[in-house]
Design a protein that fits this description.
2 copies of one chain form a homodimer. With about 375 residues, chain A is of the alpha/beta class. Chain A is built from 12 helices and 16 strands.
Chain lengths: ~375, ~375
């Protein structure tokens, strides 16, 4: 995990942080009420559990106590609450959070350090040394300021490292190539297209639904073309819309949604084309067709593998971990540098206030009520 | 293209070669009679055209005259004779050949040099400087002897470089991983599995049809398991047979056939698994479903792209050219070294005698009458 300080912003003192973010008197955790196989998850599927505020114990060498300021709600969490998906009724939900260190028994951390982590959705919690070793945890001190702690679950967290790794190391753009990206106005898609445009001079075609999102990707993110998939009734219509934007085909497709987008991208993919599979939100709310605990719905796409030989095409799935952890690339320093330079726009964030509204934020991902990254400010 | 001499075998003199391979008095070329969309190609679909023996012209700077000793018959040629596949009635067939230089106006070649090339299936022919620049052509001098010129269309040619590049640079084996390879007794598959076993200590499961081929891959190639696909009536039966051989799944699949093999491999593929798409012979004799000149039959496989994300799996098509040309890796020297060391067995070769029997050799690829590499000794 990356535990170096950045140099773009001065550190904050613990006193300043506590004044800005008062320490909670009760520990609150988002918990699952029951499995949900099919359909859109909402507030009725989650509850808030309460408990005493934890403290560090003297024998807890390496442990830290953290206060969570921002929690993430991400589409991939939908898979975990299906039967067999990993979560059971009553379980704490967990995912990406950002916040700061309140107390430390670790030489790697000092009180006031900004931190990003994958952990339980609990507002105040101890991260033991053992827990730190097993999960994703990264230091954000110097990479952002207290006003922008939400970036720790966005551009400087999972979505940022997903965009960074998926574009740079999976798709491997060449200067001037054409990139197609779905969920283009989202937390990941918005970054993918902007890094491709500003760092690789790519032509970028973004798919997202509606004029409002279309205006964001064209005017704010400076993408070259908007494909409005909501105006496309079927695969042929989407293919025709992409053809208008990219008449000579595409070199890369960054897949965030699955379904007909994949088919259309595959049919437009040029020789030596690459597809990075990042997400598949189109399928997440479908019923699992098998009862054997399979995590994702078996909604199949089809490919002509014979046609991939002469064209030397590649399809590759990936997750952010190697880049978020610093094992590959220089995610935190590169992204913070671009952010500091104003190289491109920070994708939209839709904020929900209070841990009690985590479920409402999560729901918005599937109803399209959000714009960009959904953040719950605790 | 690779034009360095090897050091494993002494060069031959032109006189020795001409004594062993008398210079033909007529130039003969394999020609296509008519398109064949569906079904197995055979001798009735090809004819031999005759013409005068060509010579070098004084102004042909860089040109060489070559005598072909061995011609290849490869499954991929089936695609070219479909309507719209590239060949028209009367056209010369072309593909991989090996032979030696009879006369040279090029400083890169001397008479007696062994040569491999992708060119017309003509027994004696001029390769102009321009033709050499456009095609695959590589020097075999020092990498083999006159007794084994057929290796130039096998282990030291297209099949060898396909196995080498596809395994080493596309699949990227880690020590001890499990590899599944189809057409395991073939010119490519036999090498893939042996390189994986001897150089990467992989567990190798090979699929091929019948006890005779099974004995070859187990006894001669030292593969760990034989899956007899001819005993598997459907995908479920093939999956069960693979499960017996590799109960914990596979890390890599080298795809030579397509169809149900791909589905079975995909369902057995472990996290971080890779599939290299090399060939798709199961589809080549099917009718093209579209009349728009599409080269390969659109026989679709299906994939669950959502499941590829968490598992970080990859599917990649490739062709041999970068490795055959020396642009990537060290194919010729590595393979000749392994051959010289006796690191593994040379895959079977089935020889057909005389250019007139090229079509019979080609047909044998689709009837299973061949074992390993089909070579037409001209």
């Amino acid at each position: 995990m990356s535990i170096n300080n950045g140099t773009y912003f001065p550190p904050a003192s613990l006193d300043e942080l506590i004044e800005k973010f008062p320490t909670p008197s009760v520990a609150k955790t988002v918990r699952l009420i029951d499995y949900l196989d099919e359909g859109v998850p909402g507030p009725e599927h989650f509850t808030i559990g309460e408990g005493p505020v934890p403290t560090l114990t003297p024998d807890g060498d390496g442990d830290i106590l953290i206060q969570v300021v921002a929690m993430s709600a991400d589409p991939y969490l939908r898979v975990g609450i299906k039967p067999g998906g990993g979560k059971n009724p009553g379980d704490a939900m967990n995912g990406f959070v950002s916040g700061f260190v309140l107390a430390s028994n670790s030489e790697k951390w000092i009180p006031g350090d900004f931190v990003g982590a994958s952990t339980d959705f609990t507002n105040i919690q101890v991260l033991t040394k053992a827990a730190q070793a097993k999960t994703a945890i990264w230091k954000l001190t110097g990479f952002l300021d207290a006003e922008h702690l939400s970036y720790g679950v966005g551009i400087l967290g999972m979505p940022g490292s997903t965009a960074y790794g998926g574009l740079i190391d999976v798709l491997k753009p060449n200067k001037g190539e054409t990139l197609f990206v779905s969920a283009a106005c989202g937390a990941v898609g918005g970054l993918v297209g902007q890094i491709a445009k500003t760092q690789y001079n790519c032509k970028v075609v973004g798919s997202c639904g509606g004029d409002e999102k279309g205006a964001i990707i064209l005017d704010k993110f400076k993408f070259d073309h908007h494909v409005d998939y909501k105006k496309c009734d079927d695969e042929a219509a989407l293919a025709a819309a992409l053809k208008v934007a990219a008449p000579d085909g595409i070199d890369m497709y960054f897949e965030n949604v699955g379904g007909m987008h994949f088919q259309v991208a595959m049919s437009a993919l040029r020789p030596k084309g690459r597809i990075a599979i990042c997400g598949c939100i189109a399928n997440y709310n479908n019923a699992s067709a098998s009862a054997d605990g399979q995590q994702t719905s078996p909604v199949f796409n089809h490919i002509n593998i014979g046609a991939m030989i002469y064209s030397a095409q590649r399809i590759e799935g990936f997750m952010c971990r190697p880049w978020l952890s610093g094992q590959k690339g220089n995610f935190l320093s590169d992204m913070a540098k671009w952010l500091h330079e104003g190289a491109f726009a920070v994708p939209e964030e839709t904020h929900f206030q209070g841990i009690e509204n985590w479920a409402a934020g999560f729901q918005s991902l599937f109803t399209g009520a959000n714009k960009g990254k959904v953040v719950i400010m605790v």
